[in-house]
Amino acid sequence: MATTPENPVWTGANRPPLRLHVPQPPARPGEAPDFSAQAIPPVGETPRPDHDTPAAQMQGHAFGLIRVLDLDGTASGPWDPQVTPEVALAMLRAMALTRAFDDRMFRAQRQGKTSFYMKSLGEEAVSIAAAFALDDEDMLFPSYRQQGLLIARNHDLVDMMNQIYSNRADRMKGRQLPIMYSVKAKGFFSISGNLATQLPQAVGWAMASAARGDTRIAAAWLGEGSTAEGDFHSACTFASVYRAPVILNVVNNQWAISSFSGMAGGDETTFAARGLGYGIATLRVDGNDVLAVLAATRWAAERARGNHGPTMIEHVTYRAEGHSTSDDPSAYRSAGEAAAWPLGDPLLRLKDHLIKQGHWDEERHAAMEAELMEQVRTAQKASERHGILGHGLNQPLDTMFEGVFEHMPWHLAEQEAQMLAEWQAAGLPEIQRPDIKREEPGA
Amino acid sequence: MTDTRDMTMIQAINDALDVAMARDDTVTVMGEDVGYFGGVFRATAGLQAKYGTSRVFDTPISECGIIGVAIGMGAYGLRPVPEIQFADYIYPALDQLVSEAARLRYRSAGEFTAPLTVRSPFGGGIFGGQTHSQSPEGIFTHCSGIKTVIPSTPYDAKGLLIASIEDNDPVLFFEPKRLYNGPFHGHYDRPAKGWAGHPDAQVPSGHYRVEIGKARVVREGGDLTILTYGTMVHVVASTLDELPDAPDAELIDLRSLIPLDIEAIEASVKKTGRCLIVHEATRTSGFGAELSALVQERCFHHLEAPVQRVTGFDTPYPHALEWAYFPGPVRLAQAFKQIMKD
């Protein structure tokens, strides 16, 4: 039977009809959270191979889960990085500072002080542990949710806020959406906003470093949803082919705005397993276990520094907040999910561990939180002295045309003159050049 | 007296790469088949043997990867010269070019730049069908932050390529592949000419630059200004030579579309009062539309006839019917007649 315009469905050949499979998350609003599909092996089960093990000999790691901290706060197993209490406390502090910063800036957006913000609540360990595992000189190619890298590298909070506020002291001159930082002095690449574009760029940076006989390596981050982009796969091919000294981090926080990880293929296999076909060494790690992330990243860094090639690390975590200030997660996911997430909260898990070890207590923790909130508040006041987006424009108009090219061609010069004339004709005030000195970040 | 040699455009491009690589050890050549083999058109022949595999290397067949990796290398401090084997294959790299390379300086307020020169053979006339003949320059001139340079002679190819590599902004360097081995008169059914003996094939040895953003007046004339670039420079010149009743045309080779030499265009059109725009690319929203608008805005009171375009048609580039598609001598002759009558 042939198809017709009225009935385009071919029904011949006496075969069962085909079905289109569209993945559905285990729970939507109004339903109980369900993480039963998350296989969580016990601490210690996933072995620690030598850092130069051929990728083909460690394929099981793509389906395991590197864990160090048990949910009761005990650290053990072959991946235990055996950090000193000072290092563990420094990571706790950096995670808490990131959380305080996020909290304050999220609120600033809600108060109308800026246009946009993105929190990293629940996945702070992914960034903080990586920054502690890598050298300060290693180059970072982040996505938009790795503010923890800058904070762990002790970047000036005021400089970050200036960018969020697009204020007079914003080194990016108000050109970028809030949180799209660029901090070359901290080895932090300019954030794009287009997804996964930083992956091949990180590979290229690492290839250049290798070609020049440098000793620095690169690391990149992207969400599990973005692994569907072609750039991710191009990056994997190049990383594998040239054995680039790069770490490709897939932050599997379960959600890409309202699309669950299955929409990127997570129901069929792990994201770590994406690396297998490329022959890339692959680790899968409890992303809410800061010690495990530290250990996995150190392993990958050692591998890269020894010219043994790239590593892909899948960080299994949970995005405890909305995607950004622009979406309401209660509209697309079960309300109880964050609380039901089987790998807990990364900050509380490290805190529990340190308390259990006798290096920390509730009192000191409360005091630290108060101190960090005060530090953020002080930074916020300092930043707001340079203006906020919510109070109008802070950038001199002609900065719009600066830096499109190194030297401005005539067509941009003409358009700039037109814009200035329009502004004048409308009787609008000129925006003064900032009188503040733009301090070098990290100086 | 500078030492000069007779070169084809391919030899001139190869020489430019050699000169640039010898002067600056951050210049890095990469692309499909560019290493050991020296490129499908031989543009990179001999470079890997001379400069080693860390500076001249083959890449996977992934245009997105080639440009993305080149941007990362640029951020590191290298000066990459990636090749996209045919301009028809550049589309997988579109996002990396227009959202990343072209905006990196701006979005990072100068912290990071993408000093790439993307070389790519473009244009038709070689029976390449829809996947080896396209002229996609108008897609890129529409995007802010990227330069588009197109040589039409061996002399310009070398000087413009060196200038592009030394430029700190991303440059798309489209090479008219029909001109690689000789100037094209527009007649597919006549024997091809080589570059040997052509005055613009006299290429100085060593380092020189042709400034990006400066057009070249190929021939002076009083009746009509013709704006074109790439292969069509030669097709137009040859057609003007052949026609017994050809107008006294001033032929301008734009050489770079962004930045554009608006002064040369204005001066010529104000002198002649007529303007014909010629490109191989499809017509609608092509760069000719931009040129037409600019001439109309700036020279309206000097115009004695409507600005006209001679272009490829808005179809996919055909294979067997290539010579019915190509804006060759017949289409040009009709346009000359029409514009001089208007």
Could you describe the 3D structure shown?
The complex is a heterodimer of chains A (443) and B (342). Chain A is α/β, with parallel strands linked by helices. Chain A folds into 2 domains: 55-326 and 333-384, 3-Layer(aba) Sandwich (Rossmann fold); 396-443, no CATH class. Chain A is 33% helix and 7% strand. In chain A, the strands form 2 sheets. In chain A, strands 1-2-3-7-6 form a 5-stranded parallel beta sheet, with helices on both faces. Chain A has a two-stranded antiparallel ribbon with strand order 4-5. With 342 residues, chain B is of the alpha/beta class. Chain B has helices at 9-23, 47-51, 63-76, 94-101, 104-107, 137-141, 154-166, 231-242, 262-272, 287-299, 322-325, 329-341; strands at 4-6, 27-31, 56-58, 79-83, 117-122, 147-149, 171-176, 202-204, 216-219, 224-228, 249-253, 256-258, 275-282, 308-312. Chain B has a 5-stranded mixed beta sheet with strand order 9-11-10-13-14, sandwiched between helices. Chain B has a 4-stranded mixed beta sheet with strand order 5-7-6-12. In chain B, β2, α2 and β3 (56-58) form a beta-alpha-beta unit. The radius of gyration of chain B is 19 Å and the shape is globular.
Relevant terms:
heterodimer, A: 443 residues, alpha/beta, Rossmann fold, 2 domains, 5-stranded parallel β-sheet, two-stranded antiparallel sheet, 7% strand, globular, B: 342 residues, 5-stranded mixed β-sheet, 4-stranded mixed β-sheet, 12 helices, 14 strands
